[in-house]
Amino acid sequence: MKRSRTASLFVMGMTPLLISACDETQKSQQAFTTLDNCAEAGVPKPSCEAAYNQAVAEAPKNAPRYSTREQCAQSYGDDACQEDDSTPGSASWYPAMNGFLIGRVIRNGAAAFYPAGPIFRRRDDTDYSPHYGSVYAGGSGGWRSMPTDASAGEGDTVSRGGFGGEGEGGEGGHGE
Amino acid sequence: MKRIAVEPRPDWQATAARYGFQFHSINGEPYWDESAYYTFTLEQIERDIETPTGELHQLAMSLVEEIVASEALMTTLAIPVRYWDWIADSWRRRQPHLYGRMDLVYDGRGPAKLYELNYDTPTSVYEAAFFQWIWLEEQQQRGVLAKHADQYNQLQELLILAFATIGKSLRKPFYFTAVRNSLEDQGTIEYLRDCAVQAGVRGDMIAIEDIGLSTKGAFTDLQNKVIGSLFKLYPLEHLFSDTYGPYLPRSDLQLIEPPWKAILSNKGILPLLWQRYPHHPHLLPAFFDAEPHQPVPPGWVRKPLLSREGANVHITLPNGESISSPGRYTQCPVIRQAFQPLPSFEGGYPLIGSWVVGDTPAGMGIREDVTLITRDTSRFVPHAIV
Fold first, then answer.
1. In the 3-class helix/strand/coil scheme, how is B59-114 assigned residue by residue?
2. Which of A145, B48, B260, B265 is the most exposed place for a label (fewest CB within 10 A)?
3. Distance (Å) from the C-alpha of residue A78 to the closest C-alpha of chain B?
4. Measured CA distances, A47 to A43, B125, B198 (Å)
């Protein structure tokens, strides 16, 4: 066979074309601890599974890292912390994933769901998300809106718009 | 190789809408045109398209090392001096590339000839990789095409594999960008982003006009986070001449396609290929044209080094008749390439777009125009192997 065995789209066709801070898209997110929780919240099953699988794959890479068990346990609790000895000579400790996050975007009445990575529950019952830092409003109380000005604190952008100047040429796109 | 007229699927527009194919028509005329399809034999595909594609790709790649090390050649290609070291460095570090499309002239018989390499910002990948694949499946289910019909199209599989391979080396956050107001370009990056997601590589989209510059000379997203790597469906040479261009070499931004693709997307690669591999069966004679204001002699085509979408191409047919396309690439050095007519099939002139993902020949899409110059108004016509 000279063609792909399957061809499928994951999010295309249900996503708005561009999500930017200034459009009227409603963005929210929700954390789930199990696939059942996710489905009960009305998220399509394939979206739940995709988000869960991605979170499981990401968790060991993106979990917060500590050099000792004690440091890890201080934030995440004794039971949560496990050792990573995959790199000889540089053992580290990290908490187990506690659940997974899904982002929901509603535009023109249509909802789209995005995998948003694992979450790690701290001792104080707040959640840490490697993608977003924190999980808004924490816990399990439904879809929480994300502030559109959420930023990672590197806020020293001095200008915008210095790329795309050739876009005024009137030939439309730039692919060929 | 045949062109077969066929009734379009009655619901093809609804199908296109369902799969997010928003640019299926241009000004009310179908761009995706399934009122016909081309058929090939497996031998034609493998011997005449796939194998030459792999060979031409290797020939082109073999020139990069020499060109990035030569000030004379970089000058000939009209690449601005301030980007030379950055381009050379990206090559020496073998910064990963994703894909390219070469345009081939092929009539089903003689050896395919290389028109040009679209190795920086190729489009029509969604049409070729996905929607063409869906078309084949549906037409088989409806009995229009035989069950054993096939297609030269491993594009989506190889794109997902490529993202899985390069994903680890991409600095985060990873973004896809294109100009805001092109439905076609936005649709293309949306599709590529979908392939990345399927490979487990997370990437968001940002309009290129929205990218910011930080006090430290890094590029930022709308949350003021420093962008780690950027897939840009926007020509490298436009980045070079944009206001932010001079910040690129020191910005630490990883680009896909990488800076060294500026060598291969430049039409100057065609005369350089002909110099190094004269009379190669899949190359057309090509030369740098030192007299851009002289008329084009009969049997030759003049192209600017940096033209897109067939702009500013001048053809003088062997009988002396001239065909020109308008455009804005008027100040650019030019090359001359031997005229090789596109074959004519029932009034359509098909041009083969042969894809390379990473370094692997990956599939094919055909664009058909009613004139000898394929422009962005040409129609995409599906194909099948029978």
1. HHHHHHHHHHCCHHHHHHCCCCHHHHHHHHHHHHCCCCCCEEEEEEECCCCCCCEE
2. A145
3. 31
4. 7, 25, 12
Q: What is the mean pLDDT of residues A85-101?
A: 81
Cα–Cα distance measured from residue A121 to residue B322, given in angstroms and rounded to the nearest whole number:
71
Show which of residues 36-75 on chain A sit within 8 Å of chain B, judged by CB atoms.
54, 57
Element (DSSP H or E) covering residue A39: helix A35-40
In this complex, the residue of B153, B225, B327 whose CB is nearest that of residue A2 is B153
Distance CA A23, CA A18 (A): 9
How far apart CA B179 and CA A23 sit, in angstroms, is: 17
Q: What is the DSSP letter of A33?
A: S
Cβ neighbours for B40, distance < 8 A, ≥ 6 positions apart: B1, B49, B108, B152, B383, B384, B385, B386
**Alpha carbons B379 and B72: distance in angstroms, whole number:** 39
- Quick one: which of B378, B382, B386, B385 has its CA closest to B130? B382
Residue to mutate among B227, B242, B375, with most A CBs inside 10 A, is B242
ipTM for the predicted complex: 0.88
Contact B86, B249 (CB under 8 A): yes
- Closest Cα partner for B313 from B304, A173, B322, B305? B304
CA-based nearest residue to A31, from A54, A51, A59: A51
Residue from B174, B233, B164, B230 nearest B200 by CA? B164
Locate all alpha helices (DSSP H) within chain B, ordered by sequence.
Answer: 12-18, 42-43, 51-68, 71-76, 84-92, 125-126, 132-141, 155-166, 183-198, 236-241, 248-251, 261-264, 269-276
pLDDT tens, residue by residue, B162-177:
999 999 899 999 999 9
Report pLDDT digits (tens) over B10-23.
999 999 988 889 88
Question: Which residue in the set B121, B180, B210 is minimally distant from A175, CB to CB?
Answer: B121
Which carries the bigger pLDDT value, residue B309 or residue B319? B319
Least confident of A109-123, B36-50, B107-121, B166-180: A109-123
- In angstroms, the CA B383 to CA B35 distance is 12
